[in-house]
Amino acid sequence: MQPLNVVLLQSDSGVARSLVSVLSDSFHSIHLVSSVGDLRVSIAKKRASVAILDMEKASLSDVQHLTREFPGASIVCTHRLADEQMWAAALSAGAADVCPSTDPQAILQAALRSNRLARPAAA
Question: Which domain holds residue 101?
Fold first, then answer.
Protein backbone atom coordinates (compact mmCIF):
# COMPACT_ATOMS: atom_id res chain seq x y z
CA MET A 1 0.00 0.00 0.00
CA GLN A 2 1.34 3.41 -0.98
CA PRO A 3 2.01 5.89 1.88
CA LEU A 4 -0.65 8.54 2.21
CA ASN A 5 0.63 12.06 1.60
CA VAL A 6 -1.20 15.34 2.10
CA VAL A 7 -0.51 18.75 0.59
CA LEU A 8 -1.84 21.67 2.61
CA LEU A 9 -2.50 25.25 1.50
CA GLN A 10 -3.83 27.49 4.28
CA SER A 11 -3.92 31.26 4.65
CA ASP A 12 -3.73 31.19 8.47
CA SER A 13 -0.45 29.84 9.91
CA GLY A 14 -2.15 28.91 13.19
CA VAL A 15 -4.71 26.78 11.34
CA ALA A 16 -1.91 25.23 9.29
CA ARG A 17 0.05 24.26 12.43
CA SER A 18 -3.07 22.80 14.02
CA LEU A 19 -3.86 20.77 10.90
CA VAL A 20 -0.31 19.44 10.61
CA SER A 21 -0.53 18.27 14.21
CA VAL A 22 -3.90 16.53 13.73
CA LEU A 23 -3.06 15.02 10.32
CA SER A 24 0.40 13.71 11.25
CA ASP A 25 -0.97 10.66 13.07
CA SER A 26 -3.03 9.51 10.07
CA PHE A 27 -0.89 10.44 7.05
CA HIS A 28 2.68 9.54 6.09
CA SER A 29 3.65 13.13 5.34
CA ILE A 30 2.12 16.59 5.23
CA HIS A 31 3.58 19.21 2.90
CA LEU A 32 2.78 22.88 3.53
CA VAL A 33 2.73 25.11 0.47
CA SER A 34 2.13 28.82 0.01
CA SER A 35 0.37 29.07 -3.35
CA VAL A 36 -1.87 27.15 -5.74
CA GLY A 37 1.10 26.78 -8.09
CA ASP A 38 3.17 25.21 -5.31
CA LEU A 39 0.19 23.00 -4.42
CA ARG A 40 0.02 21.71 -8.00
CA VAL A 41 3.74 20.94 -8.08
CA SER A 42 3.67 19.29 -4.67
CA ILE A 43 0.66 17.07 -5.46
CA ALA A 44 2.53 15.72 -8.48
CA LYS A 45 5.96 15.46 -6.84
CA LYS A 46 4.78 13.93 -3.55
CA ARG A 47 2.02 11.84 -5.17
CA ALA A 48 -0.42 13.28 -2.66
CA SER A 49 -3.62 11.40 -2.06
CA VAL A 50 -5.29 14.45 -0.48
CA ALA A 51 -4.96 18.20 -0.98
CA ILE A 52 -6.44 20.44 1.69
CA LEU A 53 -7.10 23.81 0.18
CA ASP A 54 -8.14 27.07 1.86
CA MET A 55 -10.78 28.74 -0.31
CA GLU A 56 -9.31 32.12 0.66
CA LYS A 57 -6.13 31.14 -1.21
CA ALA A 58 -7.76 29.51 -4.25
CA SER A 59 -10.67 30.01 -6.59
CA LEU A 60 -13.42 27.64 -7.67
CA SER A 61 -11.67 27.49 -11.02
CA ASP A 62 -8.53 26.27 -9.22
CA VAL A 63 -10.57 23.49 -7.59
CA GLN A 64 -11.96 22.46 -10.99
CA HIS A 65 -8.52 22.40 -12.58
CA LEU A 66 -6.98 20.44 -9.70
CA THR A 67 -9.68 17.76 -9.77
CA ARG A 68 -9.21 17.35 -13.53
CA GLU A 69 -5.42 17.44 -13.38
CA PHE A 70 -5.17 15.04 -10.42
CA PRO A 71 -8.13 12.64 -10.59
CA GLY A 72 -6.54 10.28 -8.04
CA ALA A 73 -6.23 13.00 -5.39
CA SER A 74 -9.10 14.15 -3.21
CA ILE A 75 -9.54 17.89 -2.74
CA VAL A 76 -10.86 18.95 0.66
CA CYS A 77 -11.66 22.65 0.83
CA THR A 78 -11.71 24.76 3.96
CA HIS A 79 -13.05 28.20 4.74
CA ARG A 80 -13.38 30.22 7.91
CA LEU A 81 -16.95 31.31 7.15
CA ALA A 82 -19.97 29.03 6.90
CA ASP A 83 -21.05 30.17 3.44
CA GLU A 84 -23.37 27.46 2.14
CA GLN A 85 -23.47 28.86 -1.41
CA MET A 86 -19.69 28.93 -1.68
CA TRP A 87 -19.45 25.46 -0.12
CA ALA A 88 -22.02 24.06 -2.57
CA ALA A 89 -20.11 25.68 -5.44
CA ALA A 90 -16.85 24.09 -4.23
CA LEU A 91 -18.50 20.67 -4.16
CA SER A 92 -19.89 21.27 -7.66
CA ALA A 93 -16.38 22.25 -8.79
CA GLY A 94 -15.10 18.82 -7.70
CA ALA A 95 -14.15 19.15 -4.03
CA ALA A 96 -14.66 15.92 -2.10
CA ASP A 97 -15.75 17.89 0.97
CA VAL A 98 -15.77 21.37 2.48
CA CYS A 99 -15.10 22.00 6.18
CA PRO A 100 -14.73 24.99 8.47
CA SER A 101 -11.04 25.80 8.81
CA THR A 102 -11.59 26.11 12.57
CA ASP A 103 -12.49 22.40 12.91
CA PRO A 104 -9.32 20.30 12.46
CA GLN A 105 -11.09 17.06 13.43
CA ALA A 106 -13.73 17.56 10.72
CA ILE A 107 -10.96 18.24 8.19
CA LEU A 108 -9.12 15.08 9.27
CA GLN A 109 -12.30 13.00 8.93
CA ALA A 110 -13.04 14.52 5.51
CA ALA A 111 -9.48 13.80 4.34
CA LEU A 112 -9.63 10.20 5.53
CA ARG A 113 -13.12 9.61 4.14
CA SER A 114 -12.42 11.21 0.77
CA ASN A 115 -9.15 9.31 0.46
CA ARG A 116 -10.92 5.96 1.04
CA LEU A 117 -13.53 6.86 -1.58
CA ALA A 118 -10.96 8.00 -4.14
CA ARG A 119 -8.58 5.06 -3.73
CA PRO A 120 -10.45 2.57 -5.98
CA ALA A 121 -10.67 5.16 -8.77
CA ALA A 122 -6.93 5.86 -8.51
CA ALA A 123 -5.96 2.18 -8.66
Answer: 5-122
